[in-house]
């Protein structure tokens, strides 16, 4: 069976989409757009060099545009922003370590947590103020 160049480009597109679904890396989806553009170029009759140029330009252009758009929007890691839906959630702290850290049970898993308040941490109910990596930053609830 002799496959055409467009078939290989469509298989590459499918592989990039599958990789994006497995990893959640949106940039792979932009590269898949480039591979799809190369497949369309193959359907249009462009040679292998033309297909590579179209795929590279469209894919890298899509990545660059996404990167610029994400940079302007601030992204989840920008200073002062925390887009996590867990912020405001409640956890129970049984005890604190001397350095202001602890382990808490939250949403079915054990989490590292750190006290973010100004006073001395005490056991009891706390509210998630932010998340840094996989560490919950906690404060006492304000009533």
Q: What is the makeup of the main sheet?
A: 5 strands, mixed
Distance between the termini: 72 Å
Beta-strand portion reads 15-25%
- Count of spatially separate domains: 2
> How many strands in all?
5
What helical percentage do the residues reach? 40-55%
What integer is the average pLDDT?
A: 86
- Quaternary state of this entry equals single chain
The tally of helices reads 3
Overall body shape: rod-shaped
Radius of gyration: 24 Å
Strand numbers in spatial order across the main sheet: 1-4-5-3-2
Query: What is the structural class?
Result: alpha+beta
* Unreliable parts: 75-81
Elements, N to C (H/E) = HHHEEEEE
Account of the 3D structure:
By secondary structure, the chain is of the alpha+beta class. The protein has two domains: 5-73, no CATH class; 90-139, Nucleic acid-binding proteins (OB fold (Dihydrolipoamide Acetyltransferase, E2P)). The chain is 44% helix and 22% strand. The protein contains three helices and five strands. The chain has helices spanning 5-23, 26-43, 48-73, and strands spanning 90-93, 101-106, 109-115, 124-132, 135-139. Strands 1-4-5-3-2 form a five-stranded mixed β-sheet, with no helix packed on it. Residues 75-81 have low confidence and may be disordered.
Summarize this structure briefly:
This protein has helices at residues 5-23, 26-43, 48-73; strands at residues 90-93, 101-106, 109-115, 124-132, 135-139.
Topology:
Blueprint: H1 5-23, H2 26-43, H3 48-73, E1 90-93, E2 101-106, E3 109-115, E4 124-132, E5 135-139
Parallel strand pairs: 3-5
Antiparallel strand pairs: 1-4, 2-3, 4-5
Helix pairs in contact: 1-2, 2-3
């Amino acid at each position: 069976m002799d496959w055409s160049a467009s078939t290989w480009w469509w298989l590459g597109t499918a592989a990039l989409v599958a990789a994006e679904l497995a990893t959640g890396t949106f940039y792979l989806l932009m590269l898949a757009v480039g591979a799809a553009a190369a497949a369309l170029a193959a359907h249009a009759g462009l040679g292998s060099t033309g297909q590579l140029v179209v795929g590279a330009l469209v894919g890298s252009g899509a990545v660059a545009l996404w990167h610029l758009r994400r940079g302007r929007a601030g992204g989840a890691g920008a200073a002062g922003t925390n887009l996590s839906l867990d912020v405001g959630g409640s956890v129970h702290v049984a005890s604190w370590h001397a350095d202001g850290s602890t382990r808490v049970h939250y949403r079915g898993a054990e989490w590292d947590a750190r006290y973010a308040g100004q006073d001395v941490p005490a056991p009891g109910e706390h509210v998630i103020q932010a998340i840094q990596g996989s560490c919950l930053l906690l404060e006492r609830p304000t009533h």
